[in-house]
Amino acid sequence: MNRPFSDKLRVIMRIAGCETQKALYARLKALNPETAYDPIRAYKWIQGRSSPRNRAVYDDLAQLLEMEATGEWLRNSGYEEFYSAVSARYDDLLPPLSEETGPDETETPSAETQEPGGPLPAYLAGSYFSVSRAWSPHRPGTLIVGVTTLSRDSDGRFQCGYLECLPWGELRMTGVVQRVGRNMTAPIIDSDAEMAINFTYSIPPAPAAILAGVMSGVTLSDAEMRPIAGRVLSLRLPGGETDPVRFSGYLELNADELAEKLCSCGLSDAQASGLASDILDFLVDPGDRGVIESPASMINAMIAKVLGN
Q1: Burial zone of 76 (CB within 10 Å; 0-12 exposed, 13-18 middle, 19+ buried)
Q2: Where would I find the H helices in 219-268?
Q3: Are 280 and 253 contacting, i.e. CB atoms less than 8 angstroms apart?
């Protein structure tokens, strides 16, 4: 299958979570401030009208893939060889080879099926171990763990499902995910319309090892049902596992107990013990003047520990 560089570039942009050439340029410039990648010329590259002449461009793109591949390999490899290598690195984050399309085969989504705010990267799909501060006034000083699932429906739009296994039963909530710039928001509700939560996550780079952001809603086990908000951290589960009994429920605000849960998510003992303290710092930090936000510096430090960098 002899495909031009444009098809490789599409795959790289998909892995990097970049919807535009400017976004990809920003990612490359963060890796190499002197990058030769030119977003103006890149519009011709993505259309298959030309390819980069400067070999340094291939070197920077290869570095972005975080593989052992070189820029020379990226430049000269056949498409099937390239696709096979990146699929091995990013597992199921890419569609089957037969579903990849060239520049003349790409369809433009209709207004009815297009996601509000633009499309979300396909690599976000999966199941996540989600931990946040417990909102119940009867559970002060505890954490609550649930399972968040992001998936596409038949119209191609992302859906968010959230499940908590609580002492009194299961709480299941669903809703549509929308993109807002470099963030995504998911207002979800249970089937009885008695509980509503809004997740707002920053869109992470591939492979979406961690989703971090803010959740808001109302306290369910509370006569006053007070408005409330806090940070949430979601860690990708291996193999799409979603067993709620294994992951969900209340935890003490304790690094050792949290680390034990993280080990059940596939992390090593060393990763879990180091990450547990970071997660607690992220969740417990009250913010400046009561403002709750999700700082990129804390998120990046945790992603590095999950990916072993």
Answers
A1: exposed
A2: 244-247, 255-264
A3: yes
